[in-house]
Write a structure and sequence with these properties.
The chain is an alpha+beta fold. It has a domain of 77 residues: Alpha-Beta Plaits. The protein has six helices and six strands, in the order αααβαββαβββα. The strands form two sheets. Strands 2-3-1-6 form a four-stranded antiparallel sheet. It has a two-stranded antiparallel ribbon with strand order 4-5. Strand 2 and strand 3 form a beta hairpin. The longest helix has 26 residues. The protein starts with 8 loop residues before the first helix and ends with a helix.
């Protein structure tokens, strides 16, 4: 399109080319790569099986001569072993969760500082991303006061971070523009601090008990069906006597006179 470079910045970004597609390693096999198939005989396996069978028969014949305590130990079946390992793993995770719940004290976190309404939350962050990478990507929306990537005790990233801006409007601009941004080839998600909602008492954007934005009770009105009472009075959907009018049936001013209840349309048609 000629003259595109003369457009203002807010329109010029609509004509910006899309970023190149990220490289993905093919999941199928390379047909150009030839692999040698090593095929060996089964003679060695047959000899081993024959020797094992002979030893089992010899041991079975000498079981009567074994003293107490020399018999082979009892072993569980493979399915029973898997079930035991499953139960042990479940008990270990429950114990770890109980300890983590007792030690979880977010109010005592010395790193949790800054105004929450100026803080941008970033999730699905690449594990190799650093504070410098985040600052480089998000400094274009405003002045950044602090960047923190949450890490475990070993210093490894846990995949989410917080960015504190000096002004709340800069944080809002970053929230609107940076959702879906790719950092180190991985698409991130952004979110902000949620307040008590717009009309209800549940918090967040869901509204809670009121049903959302500006609704009251549990719907459009206090009627149990949630849609309020039908319109009343003459001429509504249900007036005094049913139907569409006031006294039952159709409106009286539309009642036709004459034979059959219909007028002669030809006689009332205007002549030119």
């Amino acid at each position: 399109m000629p003259g595109t470079h003369l457009l203002p910045p807010n329109l010029l970004k609509l004509f910006a080319p899309r970023p190149p597609l990220p490289y993905s390693r093919p999941v199928d096999k390379d047909i150009d790569r030839v692999r040698n198939k090593d095929v060996s005989g089964v003679g060695e396996i047959l000899a081993h099986l024959k020797e094992e069978t002979t030893n089992n028969l010899f041991n079975a014949a000498n079981n009567d001569a074994m003293e107490e305590g020399e018999e082979p130990m009892f072993t569980h079946a493979e399915e029973v072993k898997r079930q035991i390992r499953r139960e042990q793993r479940k008990a270990r995770k429950e114990d770890e969760f109980k300890k983590a719940k007792e030690n979880y004290k977010p109010a005592d976190d010395s790193e949790a500082i800054g105004d929450p309404y100026k803080t941008l939350f970033i999730s699905r962050l690449h594990k190799s991303a650093t504070e410098t990478d985040l600052r480089r990507e998000f400094e274009g929306y405003g002045t950044i006061e602090r960047v923190r990537i949450v890490r475990d005790k070993k210093g490894r990233s846990r995949g989410y971070a917080f960015i504190v801006y000096e002004r709340e409007r800069d944080m809002k601009a970053a929230y609107k523009e940076s959702d879906g941004l790719h950092i180190m080839g991985k698409r991130i998600l952004v979110d902000v601090e949620r307040d008590d909602g717009y009309g209800g008492g549940g918090g967040g954007f869901r509204g809670g008990r009121g049903g959302g934005i500006g609704y009251h009770g549990g719907g459009f009105n206090d009627n149990p069906n949630g849609y309020g009472l039908p319109p009343s009075g003459p001429g509504g959907m249900s007036g005094g006597g049913g139907g569409y009018g006031g006294g039952g049936g159709y409106r009286s001013d539309l009642k036709r006179e004459g034979p059959g209840g219909f007028d002669d349309r030809e006689s009332k048609r205007p002549r030119y």
